[in-house]
Sequence to fold (227 residues):
Amino acid sequence: DVKVTQSSRYLVKRTGEKVFLECVQDMDHENMFWYRQDPGLGLRLIYFSYDVKMKEKGDIPEGYSVSREKKERFSLILESASTNQTSMYLCASRNAGTGDTEAFFGQGTRLTVV
Amino acid sequence: QKEVEQNSGPLSVPEGAIASLNCTYSDRGSQSFFWYRQYSGKSPELIMSIYSNGDKEDGRFTAQLNKASQYVSLLIRDSQPSDSATYLCAVNPIWDNTDKLIFGTGTRLQVFP
Fold:
């Protein structure tokens, strides 16, 4: 059974804190993604990684950074959390190359910044 | 223009009816198209994928792709209350040569008894 696991289901952090969201996949996928989901806005891509130590900005990278030191792990970092980063964060992984493979999602992390 | 567009709904259909969900995309060279279902508070799960023009059927679900019109749809036959969810259309655009998926904002489906 394929699996993408996010480290926390719910998080509450204070404004200005540095926040780490962790994601691990066990499918040996090259690609990993971080999306945030807000009502009426759908899933918006923050960053993605196509290989270890490789990353590319998505549509809304401001205020975020990422780290991929190992193939199975992709971390999203909020350098200084702000209230407008309160959201549902979804990690996904996907195989590379052919384009005709699905993305698998983690269970999501609901982050509240107070 | 957004890369992937969906009507946000809600689309309300009676139990047993056909629900028709639509999606348009802007990158004419896109090759891969996906429909995900997302229940409230849960993560998206794949329902159907389609890569060639025409119809693809899987049980009560049929995906339809028309690349000339840049249009992909999902039909749900014999709709059940358990089908009530948000349906997300996703496209793998070809213009930037990556494997990222771009999602629409989703259509909320309500099936009433």
User: Anything to note?
Assistant: The two ends of chain A are 37 Å apart (CA to CA).
